[in-house]
């Protein structure tokens, strides 16, 4: 059983609550009062990498295309068990500009090639199925295609044995099973595992960890954001059926009306 | 007459869902003057997908079961031959995946989960971000425009029924792509059946629990109610994070999208990331302690109270009435 070299791509995203507020020019989410997090699918991808390395040995590189603030998410990954942190960016990205999916994928693919030229091929590239904020459903596929590696998205279980990666994808009635030769790439979905919390020694290690930066100026792709808008909220007149257990009669009346009870 | 629009058909061994009808509605809304050409990849029998003007049946031994890379290769080759005015589908898991492959091969942009689109140079599009809780206006500059529409954004046209049956269709053309020897390396090699009968995404009623349920055991009453109503159990992300329910039950941005006739939200506050997963429900009933919770104010019906009292009382009342008839 040979050790695995794993790379996980993550994205820093704001964590909005019951409502999203926009900046005055509608070009961004107003994040002044918001915390930031790692996009949920990628949080699970980091955890999956840790579990694979627990089983097989090896090491984990976590990479983000993002501003210097995204070091917070890279350090989170280190605190739970990743070994190396890479931030890919340029001046525009540092000022908060979110590159389009083609540019993001190009930047990641180039960085992967540079890292592989130094220290060898990554056996596994893990991506989130889609980022929480832009939801483009394509960066992982583009990177895998650029590198000529197989990729399957929507994966909720990974097993590796004898150079073959077996992946399970949830469908309506159960799971589909895919089998790919390594090196391979996977788009991970939340639910593949329950991510662990950082330990105190982990947090200390993360604080002291180096973040390597790589400059990238990929050409722009064909999808360009003009502005954001929040969807119109339908105003609903809520019919109150009652309070407490006494409401049961009114609820069952409603269920009968809908032909359900 | 502009070039045809290619509509990728998401099917599983011949079975298609309502998303296919939504894809046709999207294609006709974007490009009313273009012929709609459905693309069915794989399978032996001639597909009969109604709702399209023509059908491309793409055949190759490597394509018979779903294989994202090979399906992407095949669709890209067909597009190179046909030069369509656009390639579209509905933003299902497979729809977005196959179109991402086509876009990657062609080095073209791909706009996923579009809710409005106007062709031009560039296309003006509006797409769903954050699972639908934020909209993005964007321009799409492409030689080959590739777009998926957000699920449920383009209601299906009821006059079109899309089923693959054995009835032959006069407008079917075959296309045989040339695939690399390893193109099938990401094909489905096996399937594991877990659920039978009613599933979360097809159930007419979903009874869903959130943090307010309080424990794994707390879901017993929710299961009892779901069973009585012939429905399925759903939950919020807090519940899966606590390990009270499997992630397969999670509704929301990073869980499942559901559109039942009735969604009963028990002890769920109504955070946007949950809301986007069930806002397509026809009716919403909220059971919550908090009169001001967003789920309550946005619901059609609400009961204010402790779900641990309300749900058993509803279960008892249904049983009582059924026994009486
Ligand atoms: C990127 C991202 C993606 C996300 N994806 C999802 C997703 O897919 N699905 C999802 O659900 N969430 C998702 N979330 C999380 C979401 O933001 C909320 O945290 C979550 O939905 C809250 O779950 P809840 O309503 O169960 O809990 P809370 O928000 O804590 O609400 C609990 C509710 O229960 C009520 N209550 C408590 N006790 C009782 C009782 N005894 N009887 C009746 N009512 C009671 C309370 O009044 C309250 O309204 C995501 C978050 C992020 C940042």
Descriptive account of the structure:
With 261 residues, chain A is an alpha/beta fold. Helix content of chain A is 30%, strand content 31%. Chain A has one domain: HUPs (Rossmann fold), CATH 3.40.50. Chain A has helices spanning 40-56, 71-80, 91-94, 101-119, 139-147, 200-208, 248-257; strands at residues 4-10, 12-14, 36-38, 58-65, 84-89, 124-128, 151-161, 164-171, 174-181, 184-188, 211-215, 223-229, 239-243. In chain A, the strands form 2 sheets. A 9-stranded mixed beta sheet of chain A has the order 9-8-7-10-6-1-4-5-11, sandwiched between helices. In chain B, helix 4 runs parallel beside helix 8. The N and C termini of chain B lie far apart (62 Å). Chain B has 325 residues and is of the alpha/beta class. Chains A and B meet through helix 4, helix 5, strand 7, strand 8 and strand 9 of A and helix 3, strand 7, strand 8, strand 9 and strand 12 of B. Flavin-adenine dinucleotide sits between chains B (210-212, 236-238, 250-255, 267-269, 271, 273-274, 277, 287-290, 293, 306-308) and A (15, 37, 40, 132). Flavin-adenine dinucleotide (FAD) sits between chains B (210-212, 236-238, 250-255, 267-269, 271, 273-274, 277, 287-290, 293, 306-308) and A (15, 37, 40, 132).
């Amino acid at each position: 059983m040979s050790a695995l070299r794993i790379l996980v791509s993550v994205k820093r995203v704001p964590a909005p609550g019951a409502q999203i507020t926009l900046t005055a020019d509608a070009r961004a989410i107003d994040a002044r009062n918001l915390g930031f997090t790692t996009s949920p699918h990628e949080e699970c991808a980091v955890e999956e990498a840790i579990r694979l390395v627990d089983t097989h040995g090896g090491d984990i590189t976590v990479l983000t295309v993002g501003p210097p603030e995204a070091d917070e998410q890279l350090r989170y990954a280190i605190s739970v068990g990743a070994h190396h942190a890479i931030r890919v960016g340029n001046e525009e990205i540092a000022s908060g500009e979110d590159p389009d999916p083609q540019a993001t994928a190009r930047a990641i693919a180039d960085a992967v090639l540079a890292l592989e030229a130094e220290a060898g091929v990554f056996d596994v590239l893990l991506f989130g199925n889609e980022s929480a904020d832009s939801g483009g459903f394509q960066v992982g596929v583009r990177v895998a295609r650029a590198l000529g590696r197989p990729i399957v998205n929507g994966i909720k279980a990974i097993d590796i044995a004898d150079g073959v990666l077996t992946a399970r994808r949830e469908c309506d009635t159960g799971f589909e099973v895919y089998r790919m030769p390594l090196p391979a790439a996977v788009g991970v979905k939340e639910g593949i595992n329950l991510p662990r919390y950082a330990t105190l020694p982990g947090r200390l290690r993360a604080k002291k960890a180096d973040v390597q930066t790589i400059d990238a100026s990929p050409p722009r792709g064909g999808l360009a954001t003009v502005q954001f808008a929040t969807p119109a909220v339908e105003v609903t007149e809520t019919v109150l059926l009652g309070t407490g257990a006494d409401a049961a009669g009114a609820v069952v009346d409603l269920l009968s009306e809908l032909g359900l009870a | 007459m502009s070039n045809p629009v290619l509509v990728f058909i998401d099917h599983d061994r011949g079975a298609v869902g309502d998303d296919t009808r939504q894809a046709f509605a999207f294609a006709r809304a974007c490009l009313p003057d273009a012929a709609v050409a459905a693309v069915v990849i794989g399978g032996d029998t001639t597909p009969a997908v109604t709702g399209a003007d023509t059908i491309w049946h793409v055949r190759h031994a490597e394509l018979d079961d779903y294989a994202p890379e090979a399906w992407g290769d095949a669709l890209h080759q067909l597009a190179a031959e046909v030069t369509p005015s656009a390639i579209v589908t509905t933003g299902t898991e497979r729809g977005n995946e196959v179109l991402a492959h086509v876009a990657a091969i062609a080095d073209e942009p791909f706009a996923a989960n579009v809710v409005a689109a106007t062709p031009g140079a560039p296309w003006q599009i509006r797409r769903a971000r954050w699972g639908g809780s934020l909209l993005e206006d964007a321009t799409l500059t492409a030689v080959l425009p590739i777009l998926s529409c957000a699920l449920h954004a383009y209601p299906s046209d009821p006059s079109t029924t899309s089923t693959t049956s054995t009835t032959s269709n006069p407008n079917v053309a075959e296309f045989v792509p040339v695939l690399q020897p390893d193109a099938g390396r990401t094909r489905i090699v096996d399937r594991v059946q877990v659920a039978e009968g009613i599933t979360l995404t097809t159930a007419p009623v979903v009874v869903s629990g959130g943090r307010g349920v309080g424990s794994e055991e707390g879901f017993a009453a929710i299961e009892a109610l779901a069973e009585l109503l012939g429905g399925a159990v759903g939950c919020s992300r807090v519940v899966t994070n606590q390990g009270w329910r499997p992630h397969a039950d999670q509704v929301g941005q990073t869980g499942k999208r559901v559109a039942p006739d009735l969604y009963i939200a028990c002890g769920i506050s109504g955070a946007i990331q949950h809301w986007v997963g069930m806002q397509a429900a026809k009716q919403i009933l909220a059971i919550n302690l908090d009169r001001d919770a967003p789920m309550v104010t946005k619901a059609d019906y609400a009961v204010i109270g402790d779900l641990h009292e309300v749900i058993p009382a509803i279960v008892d009342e249904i049983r009582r009435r059924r026994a009486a008839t």
